[in-house]
Input
Amino acid sequence: MYRKVETTIYLCLVLAFLLSLPAWAVTGLALVHGKGSSDLANQQTANEYWGSDMIKAASKNYQYPYVVAHYDGTQYMWQAAGQVAGQLYDFIDKNNISDLVVVTHSFGGIVMRWIFSNPDYDSRYKKIIQVTRCVNTIAAPAKGSEAADMADELSGSWLTGWIVDIVGQNTDATRNCTTSKMAEYNSTKLFGTPGRPALPKTFRWVSGYGLWNDMTHSEDYGLAMLSGAAGMPGEDDGAVSEYSAQAVGQKWFRTEANHHHNRRNDFEKIGDAIGNDVAQRIADRAEPDVRFSGVVQAGNDKEAYRAFSTRYIEFIPMSAEKTSCDIPVLLEDSEHAHVVVWPLHQMQRGEIFTLALDNKGQRGMQISDSKNIEMDGTEMSLPQGGQCLVIAQATRGEYPLRITTARSAQTRMFAVVVNSESKLTLQFSLSSLYGFDGMPLDICATLRDGTNPITGAQVTVDVAREGSKEFARITLNDDGMNGDARANDGVYATRATIGRNFARETGDWLLRVFASGVNGSGQRFQRSAKVYFQHCQRSGEIHKPVHEEALYDSAHKLTQLGFSVPVAIYQPGRYRLLGTLYVNASDGSLTPIAWTMDSRQIANTSQKTYELMFPGEDIGNTSGPFHLKLELFSLDRIEMAAEPLEGYWTKSN
Output
């Protein structure tokens, strides 16, 4: 009798204990796809993006509740994030999830970084951040993608199927993923890169270094060609280079699966790895509350954006009046090279055109026609009527390529040389990727043939509003004036004043640089690159702090450092003041150590006082004085709202 009562009491205690377990016992999985077509806003299309095998494996045979987020794949990250946040919030609420593992592919990783970098932008973000265990980003273009840089040139027409949607469309999402836009966003709108606030939860990266996974899929052919055409630096998966995929977060693993197969559970069992990761319930769960302050990513990422030239040669417009065109092609010494030409738009009669490359009687260099291209020892056919010249024992030099079409043809062609590494590079940079009316801006292009500077080139920049065909042309000079430090060093520059003779209106501007000339070997060359620039509306001014307060405990350890910062607001709206603390490093540079923010809804224009509080645990044992940097951000217009305030040193030690 007593044993039965004892057993009953024991079972009741066990039941009470189980009922008292925290909500994090419920684990959930969220899959967030990359950019693409607007049809990705449909649930079925989003499911097909991942494939049923991937979803089944990632959820451990549906053992864990999961949600496959669906959003319009053509939009900017903050627009896509609104759709994703609504679905994640409802999923968390419905299933009582408080241990969420998020898995993203490509642009989906950028969308989640927006959510975790901007907790004050949407009221649903804080709950999502609070319950998230980690975000695993597969091939996220954290520093942009050279494929996105080429999207407006490629127009998607020579790419096939899925590649057209993911890479080729020149949409807002594609512009979001360009290397210049991501450089701007990483320095103003997103956290997680060196010198910026750290993300509030763990991000882990997966990068791809393979191209050929399945010879029966046209996606593999398209990705392999795209990798060669875009001239991606280092290893890549056909759409995103590893340096970019690895730029944010901790390493999870590298994979040989390309950009098509790394969202599937086929070539490599990535879905199984995700499922095993979801099943591991780690000890450091989501904390009961989320403080939106913390440490800063170590490192210094102040180097200006640099765009490297690709192997892209030229557009060739053809018409009934112009059926033949000659363009120069530069070759480097190599066992074999390919000159590949695709029509960007279909011809009226069967996409028929001919190619001829004059080898100028070079001995040993043999040229043959082909409908296929060999990459990594594999031959593949060219889509959309593309043609190829195979060059055996290519000899360094410039050769004229003649393209001839039928008289009735109307098309634009795209020529590119692959398997021919050139040492000639163009680097294009701006002193800032955003600015305000009246600010000076340095525009700079550097031409190198290996390590040797190229002098005497013609370098121009076309400046146009995003989407506009009208542009203004400015010239860069290597004369030691107007922002060029030294004459004849291969650095071409000019200095422009924002709003006066450059970017006259607020908004996004596109800068295209064109360079041509003669290299050190006497061979003619041409290169091009582009950069996005944002002319922001100045809607506030940050003043120096008027009050500083440091609190210490009984052991004289800093527990809190606070500042009262006056900010003049010129236009009503939502604003965030971000404060970052720096200390002097041993080499004299400033090293960021902690950050915090204060967000306000400003109803009328006046001077407001923002309060910034740095917890002592974020500062640690670092001794001051500290350098405080202040940045004002418009949450309505998604842009910087005032010039940053720098140069303020704290009184606290």
Q: What stands out?
A: The mean pLDDT is 83. The two ends are 69 Å apart (CA to CA). The first strand starts at residue 27 and ends at 32.
